[in-house]
Amino acid sequence: MDAEIESVAVLGAGSMGHGIAEVAAIAGYDVVMRDIEEELVEDGYDQIEWSLGKLAEKGQLEEDPEDVLDRVSTTVDLEAAVADADLVIEAAPEDLEIKRDIFADVDAASGPETIMATNTSSLRVTDIAEATEHPEYVCGMHFFNPPVKMDLVEVASGEETDEGVVDAAVEFVESLDKTPIRVRKDVPQFVVNNVLTPLMGEAGFMLDEGDVEIQDVDAAMIFQRGYPMGPFELNDFGGLDIFTHSRDQWDLPVPDSIRSRVENDNLGRKTGKGFYDYEDGEGVNYEPTDGEGVDTLRIEARMINEAARLVGDDVADPEDIDVGMRLGGGLPEGTCRTADKLGLDNVLEKLESLHERTGAERYEPDDYLVELVENGHTGEKAGRGFYDYRDGGPYHYISHELTDDGVLNVVFDREERLNAFSTDMFDEVKRVLESVDDEDVACVVFEGAGDRAFSAGADITGFTTAEPTDLASVDETVQTIYEYPRPTIAKIDGFCLGAGLEITLACDLRYATEGSTLGSPEIDLGLIPGGGGTQRLVRLIGEPRTKEMVYRGMQLSAERAEEWGILNRAVEDDEFEELIDDVTDDLANGPQTALEVAKNVIQEGQNASLDTGLTLESQGFGLLATTDDMLEGVAAFNQDREPDFGGE
Ligand code: NAD
User: Fold this and answer.
1) What is the β-pairing status of strands 517-519 and 495-497?
2) Which residues does ligand 1 sit against, CB inside 6 Å?
3) What is the 14 CA–ligand 1 centroid distance (Å)?
4) Is 298-382 the same fold as 7-183?
5) Ligand 1 atom closest to Cα of 105?
6) Confidence band (pLDDT; 50, 70, 90) for 28?
């Protein structure tokens, strides 16, 4: 089938429903939102109005909020809601019978080719689809909370789902400017929650055993392993009842430490108390120094085992799992990538020893994990694990494209963290420059994904436990950019801070949109710039300004950065692309050897005495005087035409 989606119905105006309706309306769809009572749809509508107002206030809405709101209509009449919809997204309560009733009604009231999607978090798509006459039109479309902010959507197939329906659902998600991941088989909880659940579950089992403290486990996962929240804190945030309910539905074990709290109505933040006491106590109260000696591998081994199960059962690819864990789970890197770094043999050994000690099924290593280890695919060090590293490995945090004109576009692609640099990301930038043949490259353009940041700096989540050698990749990457033989361009739209600024300083040319901000905030972390920031800045803008920027952690507007000489130019948004195109056109059509010599002479000469610099220049000049490009340049000048350089 080949479905075109134009109109959308959302069933349920609660936390998820109104958010989904809002993102669909923002993307330009006409949306009907339905709930069972007038008051509930009105509440949902009011929330959309409020949220659109907030987005407009922050400049994150391209249209007038009223125009977006005009595309949303509400009803309590199911038939009226779905009769003309190409896509129905159900976001009603997480109860199989309710959902089955809804899907049976939708099936009867909608057109024959209407796609019916469920936002269920923990039910099987197939069990819901069975209530319809057209299970091939039913799929999972799992948004994360809040849909307006969260970029990920899991698109899941039921047993009968038509591939065309899934393709149309994926396309729809992309049209919302969200990132879809494919869940190819019908597993309850899809991908992200399956991998994330053991984080909270295993922490609970460790607490049951009585030899760890809540604060220690949370602090260890955050400060040693870089997780954005500790497992207990996270469970309190989501609600211990939700965790328990999702496990009970499938008769899966729940740690006593979690169940007993649910029985006492201590459900987490929403009741004021869970693992932490938010009302009478001080709330979340771990310290960065807590957590010594906590067996974090025990928790991560179980998450990795789940990831292995999903890959082995062909539910999802490692790439999709990792994107899901980053965008949906908020992790600094994907679980499969983490596994390859930890060593799958270490993970397997941990699971085996836990299994042997407890006999609990949850530690039984998945067949796929065992197979990887038996084949020697134990991770990055072995050259293969979840990923194949023999040719350097996949790029997780950057994307790149070399145009026919020789423009190498490198995008820092970690939008969920404002393109902040992790060690992997630094390595990937260096790797891409080294792997593309520079003979094919006329110039390189670096930019950040999205419209909020070039890069907000180095990702500090791993800093507390990083070794100085881990941080060396900053320097190596910045130096590789600086020494790259072709012209390099920083294309800055949004925040350009810390390591982002240092990358920028290593580029030859720097352009920004007027709303961009450049700065060196390292001092506020008790640090100084570590990727050449102090040295390149002082050579560029002199001592007083460099000291002011570094000492005060100043952030400059693009206008000021241009005035100070950091930027070649700052322009308005609507002039930006054209400016970059003009520059890259000039560079791509310019004499390649002369550009390379010019870069070399300017950079080398700057660090030498004037005499040496002048000698370098005259050597370069002499070298170029014998090239075909020079002959062509002179001939073109004489004939009053554009030169056509061949690069020799
Ligand atoms: P909610 O309780 O906030 O909203 C559910 C809404 O559905 C309520 O307003 C209710 O009146 C309405 N409703 C009940 N019967 C209905 C019917 N027959 N037709 C239309 N609406 C009906 O719940 P929620 O948090 O928005 O969750 C909705 C779904 O999304 C659930 O399946 C849940 O598992 C899933 N989900 C929730 C989250 C989350 O974090 N809240 C995240 C992802 C997925």
Assistant:
1) parallel
2) 11-17, 34-36, 40, 91-94, 98, 102, 119-121, 142-145
3) 5
4) no
5) 18
6) very high
154 catalytic residue (yes or no): yes
**Predicted confidence band of residue 84 (pLDDT cuts 50, 70, 90):** very high
CA of 29 to the centre of ligand 1 (A): 21
* pLDDT for the residue numbered 628: 87
Tens digit of each residue's pLDDT (9 = 90 or more) over 466-502 = 555 556 678 899 999 999 999 999 999 999 999 999 9
Per CATH, the architecture of 192-294 is what? Orthogonal Bundle (1.10)
Q: Distance, CA 89 to ligand 1 centroid (Å)?
A: 11
**Spatial CA neighbour of 69 closest among 24, 35, 130, 39:** 24
Please give the average per-residue pLDDT across 173-187, as a whole number: 97
Report the candidate in 141, 15, 12, 29 with the shortest Cα–Cα distance to residue 86: 29
For residue range 396-428, what is the model confidence (pLDDT) as tens digits? 999 999 999 999 999 999 999 999 999 999 999
Sheet holding 87-90, edge to edge: 72-75, 30-34, 7-11, 87-90, 115-118, 138-143, 152-157, 179-183
Tokens representing 391 are 């040719």
Q: Whose CA is nearest to atom 8 of ligand 1?
A: 14
Residue nearest to atom 3 of ligand 1 (CA): 14
Catalytic residue (one of 22, 90, 154, 333): 154
Between CA 621 and CA 626, with CA 624 as vertex, the angle to 5 degrees is 120
- Which tokens sit at 147? 């849909």
Could you give the percent of the chain with pLDDT greater than 70?
A: 97
Ligand 1 pocket test: pick from 18, 20, 31, 36 the residue with the most ligand atoms within 8 Å of its Cβ: 36
Structure tokens at 615: 């000698």
Is pLDDT above 70 for 206?
Answer: yes
* Active site annotation includes 607: no
- Which one of 3.50.50.60, 3.40.50.300, 3.30.200.20, 3.90.226.10 gives the CATH number of domain 398-582? 3.90.226.10
Nearest CA to ligand 1 atom 25: 15
Q: What is the pLDDT of residue 622?
A: 87
* Catalytic residue status for 62: no
Mean pLDDT score across all residues of the chain: 94
Q: Determine which residue's CA is closest to atom 31 belonging to ligand 1.
A: 94
Q: Is 171 in contact with 141 (CB distance < 8 Å)?
A: no
Give tens-digit pLDDT for 274-294: 999 999 999 999 999 999 999
Question: Catalytic site residue 134?
Answer: no
CA distance 519 to 555: 4
Domain range 595-638, its CATH number among 2.60.40, 1.10.30, 1.10.12, 3.30.70: 1.10.12
Domain residues of the chain, as ranges? 7-183, 192-294, 298-382, 398-582, 595-638
Going by alpha carbons, the residue nearest to atom 15 of ligand 1 is 92
pLDDT for residue 498: 94
591's tokens? 């004499």
